[in-house]
Amino acid sequence: MDKGVRTYLVVTGAYWAFTLTDGAIHMLVVLHFHNLGFSPLQIAFLFLFYEVFGIVTNGLGGWIASHIGLNRTMIAGGILQVVALGSLAVDPSWLSVAYVMTAMALSGIAKDLNKMSAKSSVKLVIPQGENADTRLFKWVAILTGSKNTLKGAGFFLGGLLLYLTGFRWAMGGMAAVLLLVYLYVLWALPMGMGMARKKAKISQIFSKTREINILSGARFFLFGSRDVWFVVGLPVFLASVTGWNHIEVGSFLALWVVLYGFVQAGAPALLRKGHHGRGPQSSSARNWALLLAVFPAAIAIALMSGLDPALSLIVGLFAFGAVFAINSALHSYLILAYSDHDKVAMNVGFYYMANAAGRLTGTVLSGWIYQTQGLEGCLWWSTGFVLAAALISFALPNVPEATPDGSASP
After folding, report:
1. Would you tell me how many other CB atoms lie within 10 Å of the CB of residue 222?
2. What is the rounded distance in angstroms from the CA atom of residue 152 to the CA atom of residue 159?
3. Is 194 helix (H, G, I), strand (E, B) or coil?
4. Quick check: 204 and 196 in contact, CB under 8 A?
5. Rounded to two decimals, what is the model's pTM?
6. Which helix (H) or strand (E) holds 140?
7. Most buried of 125, 131, 177, 313 (most Cβ within 10 A)?
8. Is residue 395 exposed (0-12), middle (13-18) or buried (19+ Cβ within 10 Å)?
C-alpha cells in the first residue's frame, strides 16, 4: 500500500474513534444535566471552557505542530480526551459545575488538537501533479464527511449509553477503548509529519494572508449559525416541548449528523460540474451560504405560524443540514487550497481558531436566546449569522493553481 494512503487511513481511523467519543460526551452532558434540573443557560456554560480552550488550542496548535510534527499533536489530543472522559467517570457528588467545565476544557483542547492535525495531514499525503486540486477536495471531503457521520453515531451512542449504563460507566468505558486506539496510533504514524522546514515565530500565528483571514471570518459566522440553535436549544426543545425521551432525542440528532456527514463526503460529486478539472472557487462558498440562510428563517416562520413543531423541525433541519454540509466541505477545501505545505498546520490552526470562536459564541447564545426568546429566536439569530458569512465570502479571491510541490502559484 502507498505510504501516503496508509497514513491517510491511520489518521482517518483515529479521527473516527475520537469523534465517536466527542459526540457521545456532548449528548451525555446535555441530557444528564437536563435531567438534574439545570437550565438551558447553565447547560450552555458547561461547554464554555470547551469552546474557549478550543480557540486557544487552534491558535497555538498549528504553531506547535510546525515545530514537533502533526503526529505528536494528534496523539496528544487523543490522550487528553482519555483523561477528560476518565475524569467524568467519578462519583456523582464530584460533578459540580466547575468540575465539569474543567473536564470539558480538556476535551475541547483534545478535540481541536485532533481536528487540526487530521485536516492538515490530508494536504501532506495528497500526491501532487495533475488534478491535485480535485483530489484534495475529494479526500478532505471524505475525511470531514465521515467524521461528521461518526459524530452523529456518537450522539446516538451517548443517549444509548446514558439509558443502558448511566453517566459514570459510559465515560469510563469510552476512556478505556480510546486509550487502546491511540496506543496503536503512536506506533503507526510516521514521526515528524508536518514539521515546517523554517520554524515560525509565535508572533506569526496572527500574521495571515488576506484570503485566510477572510475565510476564517466567514467560518466564524457559519459555525455560529449552527450552534446558536443546535447545541442547547434544539435538544432541550425536543425533550421538553415535544416530549421525546433520551433515546429519541439522541437518535434524531444522530441521524441528522450521519446524513449531514454523507452529504459532506459526497460534496465533490455533487459539485463536480463547472470546475473544469479544478476544485471549487470562491463564488461557490458565497452562493451556497446565501442558499443556507433560507432554511433557519423558514423553520422559524413555520413554528411562529403554529405548524406542527416536530414535523417543521424534522423537515427543516434535514434541509438545513444538507446545505450546511456543502458549505462546510467548501470551506474545508478552500483553507487547504489557499495554503502551501510549509504553512498548512499554522493556517489550519488559525482557521479553526475562528471556527471555535464561532462555536463558543453560538453555544453561549444558544442557552441565553432559548431561555429568553425560545427556539424561534435562536433560528432568527442563525439566519443573521449565515447572511454575515455570505457577505464576508464576497471578498474571497479565486484559488490559485497548485505547483508540483504543493504550494500555491502566484
Report:
1. 28
2. 11
3. coil
4. no
5. 0.71
6. helix 132-164
7. 313
8. middle
Half-sphere exposure of 373 (CA within 13 A, CB side): 15
Cell (9 digits) for 194: 508536518
- Give the three-class secondary structure for 408: strand
Q: What CA–CA distance (Å, rounded) separates 214 from 209?
A: 9
The backbone torsions φ and ψ at residue 90, rounded to the nearest 5 degrees and listed phi first, read -120, 175
Mean pLDDT calculated for residue range 288-293: 95
For residue 116, what are the CA distances in angstroms to 175, 257, 346? 21, 20, 9
> What whole-number distance in Å separates Cα of residue 307 and Cα of residue 168?
39
Q: Is 407 helix (H, G, I), strand (E, B) or coil?
A: coil
Cα 249 to chain centroid distance, Å, stands at 20
Q: How many CB atoms lie within 10 A of CB 405?
A: 9
Q: What pLDDT is recorded for position 3?
A: 67
Whole-Å CA distances, 328 to 159, 274, 347: 26, 19, 17
**CA separation for the pair 392, 334 (Å, rounded):** 14
For 408, list phi and psi in degrees, rounded to 5.
-80, 135
- DSSP code at position 244: -
Tell whether the torsion through CA atoms of 220, 226, 229 and 230 is positive or negative.
Answer: negative
Distance CA 148, CA 263 (A): 10
Q: Would the pLDDT of 410 be above 50?
A: no
Amino acid at 75: I
For residue 117, what are the contacts with CB-CB under 8 A and spacing of at least 6? 11, 61, 65, 70, 71, 73, 74, 77, 194
Residue 127, classed as helix, strand or coil, is coil
Structural domains of the chain in order of their starting residue, each with its CATH number? 3-193+209-393 (1.20.1250.20)
Nine-digit cell at 134? 480535485
Residue 69 has phi, psi (to 5 degrees) of 105, 145
DSSP helix, strand, coil percent of the chain (3-state; round to 5): 80, 0, 20
Which of 120-124, 210-214, 253-257, 258-262 is modeled with the greatest confidence? Answer: 210-214
Task: Quote the cell numbers at residue 218.
Answer: 466567514
171-209: per-residue pLDDT in tens?
A: 999 999 999 999 988 887 776 665 555 555 655 566 568
Q: Dihedral sign for Cα 268, 274, 280, 286, please.
A: negative
Residue 363 and residue 230: Cα distance in Å, rounded? Answer: 8
